[in-house]
Structures
1.
Amino acid sequence: DIVMTQSPDSLAVSLGERATINCRSSQSVLYSSDNKNYLTWYRQKPGQPPELLIYWASTRESGVPDRFSGSGSGTDFTLTISSLQAEDVAVYYCQQYYTTPPTFGGGTKVEIK
Amino acid sequence: EVQLVESGGGLIQPGGSLRLSCAASGLTVSSNYMTWVRQAPGKGLEWVSVIYSGGNTYYADSVKGRFTISRDNSKNTLFLQMDSLRAEDTAVYYCTRLHLRVAFDIWGQGTMVTVSS
């Protein structure tokens, strides 16, 4: 199975400041046939199911605010929140579907400083 | 509006069985890749199973041989039959749709399963 490792485990950011979350996969999740990274980011607010933010490493899901962006390729990826809002207090997960079983990172908890 | 609504969770003794249901509206279960993902209390997300539109099914090693995913096309409903339940199966179980073979884009609210004597 592909192991997904997120860092940091938690971070506290002031409102309006930038938050950066990292995700590393134990093997490349870049499919050569379509040149897409099978890497997805989710936000899970307290008491709610996860919601899709970014797929193919950098494609923003419809309706997701443009303060969220994803980057990276191969084994190293980053989720950036350019200007943290109060509603972004949540746990963020990365996930790969390069192979079955799909696997998730351990999560990064984002709080307000 | 697309919606997934899970039901069937509850408290069950170790070794027991439970069947979860996921009623879909706004999408056709049989035309999509439908999955179950679970989350133990205070823990992260764990994929459980998927059923492809063609009917192929796949399972996490932790549930293989004990859980069965299926669907009823006439009821537009997804199921998860869980047998030989263990304490470590205690979790919120989410029904989700796999989109573009990469991301889970639609999630239900989840149903809680507690395995305890």
2.
Amino acid sequence: NAGVTQTPKFQVLKTGQSMTLQCAQDMNHNSMYWYRQDPGMGLRLIYYSASEGTTDKGEVPNGYNVSRLNKREFSLRLESAAPSQTSVYFCASSGQTGNTGELFFGEGSRLTVL
Amino acid sequence: AQRVTQPEKLLSVFKGAPVELKCNYSYSGSPELFWYVQYSRQRLQLLLRHISRESIKGFTADLNKGETSFHLKKPFAQEEDSAMYYCALPIYNQGGKLIFGQGTELSVKP
């Protein structure tokens, strides 16, 4: 049982380049999330999708776009990467029926923007 | 505004010493709170939630609504407890998203 799978695990970009982080979950969860983790800042929510077909901004959405492709997949796109987007990105999912409040996380994607 | 605060970035203790990781929250409703843990090279995972009133790996946490706190405690720290700990508040009417504190790195020295 894979749980939440993110790709790629590592990526180095130059300023201005674009890329998409992919996330898939196999737990039939309704909600999916993208967080970024920075030292001293904790985890900050970028975007979330409460259910298939909906997406909403989180705390730090600027510079990012998301797509909830289907119930399993939720991708995060950086259209024009900036050094401030150097971070570790985590995808998470929750809620099969009802919402227990527990999030299941992927292993993280470490992105460096030069 | 909904907010979770962990005032300590780093907590360093010796093996066998008591541990208390502090968490304070700001929330207008009746909160549920969680502690998540991230061990080195592992995924972030749920450690415990206040509603279940359980002890996991010797850790407990009590919700104190008067002090708006949810401190994580363990009477005798072990080296394997060294990890990053996050306090988190779920917002159910916004897709169940979690608001996290800044995190506290616990280092247990032998």
